[in-house]
Design a protein that fits this description.
Length: about 130
């Protein structure tokens, strides 16, 4: 049974940093693409970053490039999202998800390609 559990969210000041963790179980990381998504109140869910350890590739949405870094630890089956230079625009619920459509998922970051979802963790950026 595929499970994903997010942690690491919280309240941070503008310009600050956070590390989100996604603990996965029920599959080997190399067999699925794993991504981070976010949804702000009243907005659609959007892809933030995706990683495929099998293809050794990542995807980032344009607005987080250079500020966010996705990584994966095969030993612990954990995927991380390191977020720096946070702004209020990054405030949202952040979700971890996994997809068997590896190439499409890591190429586009489209939420509809992801079959398995965690419950999310809240990130608030405010002074």
């Amino acid at each position: 049974q595929v499970q994903l559990v997010e942690s690491g969210g919280g309240l941070v000041q503008p310009g600050g940093s956070l590390r989100l963790s996604c603990e996965t179980s029920g599959f080997a990381l190399e067999n699925l693409a794993v991504g981070w998504f976010r949804q702000a109140p009243g907005e659609e869910r959007e892809g933030v970053s995706v990683i495929s350890t099998k293809e050794r590739t990542t995807w980032y949405r344009e607005s987080v490039k250079g500020r966010f870094t996705i990584s994966a630890d095969d030993a612990t089956n954990t995927v991380y999202l390191d977020m720096h230079s946070l702004s209020p625009a990054d405030t949202a619920d952040y979700y971890c998800a996994a997809s068997s459509y590896i190439l499409s998922a890591v190429g586009t970051g489209r939420p509809g390609l992801f079959e398995y979802w965690g419950r999310g963790t809240q990130v608030s950026v405010s002074a």
